[in-house]
Amino acid sequence: MRAISSPGTDADGSGQLSGLDRFAVRLKWPFHPGLLDAAWAVFSAINLAAILAFPGWETIPFHVIWISVTVVYGFRTWAPAPTLWVLGVVMATTAAAIGVDVARRLTDPQELTEVPLMAAMFVAMAWHARRKLAAEQKSRLVGEENARLLATQRRFLQDASHQLRTPITIALGHAELLARGLTGRQEGHDIQVVLGELTRLRRIAERLLVIAAAEGPEFLHLEPVALDSFTMEILRRWRPTANRSWQVGRLDQVTVQADRERLGLAVDALLENAVRHTADGDVIKLSVMATWIGGPVRMAVADAGQGIPAELLGHIFDRFRSGDSGHPHGTGLGLALVRAVARAHGWDVLVRSRPGHGSEFELLLPAPSAPPPTPEAPQAAAAAGAEATGDTLARKP
Known about the structure:
The chain has helices at 19-28, 33-53, 59-76, 80-103, 114-181, 185-213, 227-238, 260-276, 310-313, 334-344, 376-389; strands at residues 223-226, 245-251, 255-258, 283-290, 297-303, 349-353, 359-365, 392-393. It is of the alpha/beta class. The protein has a domain at 223-393: Histidine kinase-like ATPase, C-terminal domain (Heat Shock Protein 90, 2-Layer Sandwich). Helix 2 packs antiparallel against helix 3 (59-76), helix 4 (80-103) packs antiparallel against helix 5 (114-181) and helix 8 (260-276) runs antiparallel to helix 10. It starts with 18 loop residues before the first helix and ends with a strand. The model is unreliable at 1-17 and 370-397 (pLDDT under 50).
């Protein structure tokens, strides 16, 4: 006979023992499981004696015996052979005790029909319990295998990314040296293609490394980050890189606990995606919006580009997927990196888009460390930032 070794969890999946499971653990420890069986045997013997001692009231101790064996089985879940032995003993003893009363003509012989009925109910319950245990064991094995595969995949991505970075960097350095010495037009064009592809490979390796490390316990180094000034710094850095109409939307003064470096990588990936899917003069707007107290903070990047087809929205954050048929200069990992960073912070990233009407990505971050400011403060900060950079300030909704 064996005891169930894996206690259940709450319905919310928090990993805490439920009240019934805690009771079961108290029953099993510090007592040996055999003591529970012995206590049940003594309890059943007392009820058998009660059947003989109180003719006419045998129904109560009879049902108590069958209820108790069902309860004990729920805690112990005996193996099939011991279960059949216990079932046979209970059937024989209860039938014998009632048979004595029948022989003494103290009870109706029809009472004996309850013995096979109760046995059939117990067998049905035991069968379902065994099926549940088998399903839980299979699910646990599948979960362990999936966890092993995910761990193997993460290790492979980390190892491959580390191993690729060094030769790519060396090759890129030599290609840059060659580019300086080439004077022919065709040769110069060819070496620029090589430089572009090597740079793209380096970005792929770096982003794969970040994505692979995103589920590790040391991925984030949290610190207070003032998102309004953080956003303006990013905007100043990106304005010279592309001929776009860079704008600042609503800019709430809010500070969150976040990893500044990882967050910067995620916002850079969103802006790179926006630049890649817009044309000269198109609008790219950055916003920071604090929701209700305790709710997430939204960092939004909106563009007036080509948009994303509806059939691709469900896969836009998958690795090596993009919102179009495949841009030649994209890595297919930028949005996957954004989602990895957002989920590492405890939230997620959302997207809204329509073909021909642009796209808007929202990076959700944990609740701010201070309550949201008054409505006048965010607009004042946005106006000051816009004045400092010469950006167009969108009117706060």
